[in-house]
Design a protein that fits this description.
The longest helix is centred in the first third of the chain and has 4 residues. The radius of gyration is 15 Å and the shape is globular. The two termini are about 30 Å apart. With about 160 residues, it is an all-beta fold. Strands 1, 2, 3, 4 and 5 form a five-stranded mixed sheet that branches. The chain has a four-stranded antiparallel sheet with strand order 6-7-8-9, with no helix packed on it. It has one helix and nine strands.
Length: about 160
């Protein structure tokens, strides 16, 4: 069960959703096993993160390569999956972050998005969004449903960000 999301720095990411002549394959990795539970502080400076597989490159929601080299790492401990992101930001750039309430439109800010398809159906999924101010949004979805997503669904997860 996915319960936690940890983010460090922020940049809008997503899987390629639009047709491209040169599609970027979605990143894939098997989560490494951590010896101890990672500290949820928005920093990726523990040993568990340094030995975890690195995911990337990522793309923007438009399917274009990300401007900055965002990476993610996966670890698991005691039945929990931890996802840590490192999202470098251009020196002197201003983060565009306006959303402050849970389940607000956090994807419109500098944010990360994670889609999890637990059954590998390419139909049913869970969608998690976290902006630079640690504002969460989540929903469940079924592409065959009407509507195709349930924004009222609230998963059990914690998060932290740092800059």
């Amino acid at each position: 069960m996915f319960r936690y999301l940890c983010a460090n720095g922020l940049l809008l990411i997503g899987l390629p959703l639009t047709a491209r002549a040169d599609p970027i394959a979605p990143p894939f990795a098997i989560a490494g096993i951590a010896d101890t539970v990672p500290v949820l502080d928005g920093k990726l400076d523990e040993a568990a993160w340094s030995s975890a597989p690195v995911l990337g490159p990522f793309v923007t929601i438009e399917g274009q390569p990300a401007t900055n080299e965002t990476t993610a790492r996966l670890v698991r401990f005691d039945g929990t999956v931890w996802i840590g992101f490192r999202c470098p930001f251009t020196e002197g750039a201003t983060l565009d972050v306006k959303q402050t309430a849970r389940d607000s439109d956090a994807w419109t800010d500098e944010s990360i998005e994670v889609f999890i398809d637990p059954g590998l159906t390419l139909r049913r999924y869970f969608h998690f969004t976290l902006n630079a101010n640690n504002v969460q949004r989540d929903e469940s979805g079924d592409k065959a449903g009407s509507p195709p997503f349930d924004a009222g669904w609230n998963g059990t997860w914690r998060s932290a960000t740092s800059r």
